[in-house]
Design a protein that fits this description.
By secondary structure, the protein is of the alpha+beta class. The protein has one domain: Peroxisomal Thiolase, Chain A, domain 1. Helices cover 34% and strands 21% of the residues. It contains nine helices and eight strands. An eight-stranded mixed beta sheet has the order 3-2-4-5-1-6-8-7, with helices on both faces. Helix 3 crosses helix 6. The longest helix is centred in the N-terminal third of the chain and has 17 residues.
């Protein structure tokens, strides 16, 4: 079984109007306004050729991952990483499917390799030189919880720290009707087995209301990664716990002892 606790050594965050965790922290507490932000982060860690090709969803994932590592004082090359996205890059998937349906020979190899679900893991390895294990997963509304479970499992197996990165972008094409999502949103945590930051405990509980009433959860509710936001609202507002969607019949109760 995964351990029931870990410590939050680092946090990264990016959303439209809140391009860093300090901005999101202040906004969640009602102490800061939204700020001007580019359409997507610049992915400055990547070499210029890759930077020009990187899709916005991957750019967000790299931005928050890098920010969490810097806050934790961790070398990104030394951390196993779990990338979690409920939908992947739907705009690219829609473009690939539309091209295959209309003119298959015109399909761009770059669009195809950017559309796969582990694209962020590949770009992260290029950007940082990391050769540690990288996991890419999705599980609908439970995606972020599954990423936490995977990270806890790795901590239980002896990893001192694990990086968790969650992100999603806007829906596109016919798929958006059944899997809607709006805007770009990403967040990351460096979780530690040692007391390197605030303690976070985890318990599986019967399904309860997990919609979240905090300012972050309400503002970005339309994004597919929104189920993670009650945790970040709770961290910012120093609440004792948060409930996250963990599947049809369960919730994850995240305790944040003061």
């Amino acid at each position: 079984m995964p351990p029931s606790r870990a410590h939050i050594a680092g946090i990264g965050f990016w959303a439209d109007g809140l391009p860093a965790w300090p901005d999101a922290y202040a906004y969640a507490r009602g102490e800061g306004p939204l700020s001007a932000a580019p359409a997507a982060p610049a992915a400055l860690r990547l070499p210029p050729n890759e930077r020009r090709r990187v899709p916005p969803t991957v750019a967000v994932a790299l931005q928050v991952a890098d920010a969490a590592c810097r806050m934790a004082g961790s070398d990104p090359r030394e951390l196993p990483v779990v990338f979690a996205s409920a939908l992947g890059d739907m705009a690219l998937v829609d473009a690939v499917c539309s091209t295959l349906a209309a003119q298959p020979a015109a399909l761009s190899p770059i669009r195809f390799h950017n559309s796969v679900h582990n694209a962020a893991a590949g770009y992260w390895a290029i950007a940082t030189g990391c050769r540690r294990a990288a996991t890419a997963l999705c599980a609908g509304r439970a995606t972020f919880c599954e990423a936490l479970l995977e990270a806890y499992g790795q901590l239980a197996c002896g990893e001192p720290r694990v990086l968790v990165v969650a992100y999603d972008g806007p829906g596109a094409g016919p798929l958006a009707a059944v899997a809607p999502s709006e805007g770009l949103l990403g967040a990351a945590l460096v979780l530690s087995a040692q007391p390197d930051g605030p303690l976070m405990t985890m318990n599986v509980a019967p399904a309860q209301d997990v919609s979240g009433t905090g300012r972050l959860a309400r503002r970005y509710a339309a994004n597919a990664a929104a189920p993670m936001l009650p945790l970040f609202d709770a961290i910012a507002c120093e609440l004792p716990f948060a409930r996250l969607a963990a599947g049809a019949h369960y919730a994850l109760r995240i305790g944040l002892p003061g």
